[in-house]
Amino acid sequence: MPLSTIDQTGITSPVGPLVLTGVTDGSNASAGAIGEYISSTVNAPSSGLTSGTTATVTTISLTAGDWDVNGVFTLNFGTGASSTQAYGSLSTGTTLPSSSNGGSIYIPATLATSSGLSLTANPIRVNVTTTTTVYLLVLSFFSGGSLGAGGYIRARRVR
């Protein structure tokens, strides 16, 4: 059975089942539509972090709506660097959350390495009524060299 009318405000006179389908043409969801995707990526340099100081790796700006946000941070160890603690987090502020919930990950073991380390921050839901910045943050305590951070943050509008 066909539907009488579907427009931007919805179904005005349903007379049968509604079937929603995705796209198959490789196009992106438009701004404000369910499925809208926003991301930012930064490569990890071999220096730039200060031990014990929270740093912003990258940010994205989300418009009003309900979003699922994910992120990965990468630590790039310079020659001789050794880290004993590392934190990565997604946050709507520039400070790390106080628990491992809400987008944070904490690594307490010694991470001394010469190649680097990539970790996934716990995903978060961001449900906002105004445009809001979401931060990918990193904090590491290290010695004996330099350490840099990179990563990516991505968000998909879910409703």
Structure, explained:
The chain is mainly β. It has a single domain (30-157), classed as Jelly Rolls. The chain has no helices and 10 strands. The chain has strands at residues 6-7, 10-11, 37-42, 55-62, 65-77, 82-91, 104-107, 117-128, 132-143, 147-157. The strands form 3 sheets. A 4-stranded antiparallel beta sheet has the order 3-10-5-8, with no helix packed on it. A 4-stranded antiparallel beta sheet has the order 4-9-6-7, with no helix packed on it. The protein is elongated. 25% of the residues are buried. The model has no long low-confidence stretch (mean pLDDT 83).
Q: How many distinct beta strands?
A: 10
Gross geometry: elongated
CATH fold topology: Jelly Rolls
Helix content: under 10%
Low-confidence stretches are none
Structural class label? mainly beta
> What fraction of residues sit in β-strands?
over 45%
Q: Under the CATH scheme, which class?
A: Mainly Beta
Total domains, how many? Answer: 1
What would the average pLDDT be, to the nearest integer? 83
How would you summarize what this structure contains?
With 159 residues, the protein is an all-beta fold. The chain has strands spanning 6-7, 10-11, 37-42, 55-62, 65-77, 82-91, 104-107, 117-128, 132-143, 147-157.
